[in-house]
Amino acid sequence: DAKTTQPPSMDCAEGRAANLPCNHSTISGNEYVYWYRQIHSQGPQYIIHGLKNNETNEMASLIITEDRKSSTLILPHATLRDTAVYYCIVRGSGGGADGLTFGKGTHLIIQP
Amino acid sequence: NAGVTQTPKFQVLKTGQSMTLQCAQDMNHEYMSWYRQDPGMGLRLIHYSVGAGITDQGEVPNGYNVSRSTTEDFPLRLLSAAPSQTSVYFCASSYSANRGNSPLHFGNGTRLTVT
Q1: How many angstroms separate the CA atoms of A40 and A63, rounded?
Q2: I need a surface site. Which of A40, A43, B64, B67 has the fewest CB within 10 A?
Q3: What is the per-residue pLDDT across B41-73, written as a single tens digit (0 to 9) for each?
């Protein structure tokens, strides 16, 4: 699976949109971009994923550039409960073991 | 909607004791897996299963056994606990063993301390 690069930390004001960037310049055509977050002492929480098109669900939006080399996770109206470490992961298709490598992620801090 | 349920939440064992960490999912997911998370190490895959009756080893399987007799349950057994197995253990499941378009959903973990 391709490697990803994220800023180590970001701040965002409560109520504002939080935009978290991710670079994945070596992504290949059949690899998906996934976003997870982990709030201290809880299990990783799935947020959203996409292949080529932009995606939106009840939690967030995912914007993938046309060349697929980078993406942005958008939390439209951040709340204090969105403070967490956010992980951008590239996952290939296929079966077998799913190692799901989490990098260091971005520590997002929502300020009141 | 319970999702992935892990029990117990916390456990303290003495070296040499055995125990079973329970994991159950109610989403009829085909794929289930166990990870451990240690500070600075990220998630490491212990064992996984692509369906009932099928299990296989992950990255760090030594000292652990699994079985998958039903679609819903995937228990993790520690045969003889060692201090090196002190960790947070996460169970995860996904709809399909074809991982690309099938998100993994995690439980909230079991925090195990071996003294």
Answers
A1: 26
A2: A40
A3: 788 999 999 999 999 999 999 999 999 999 999
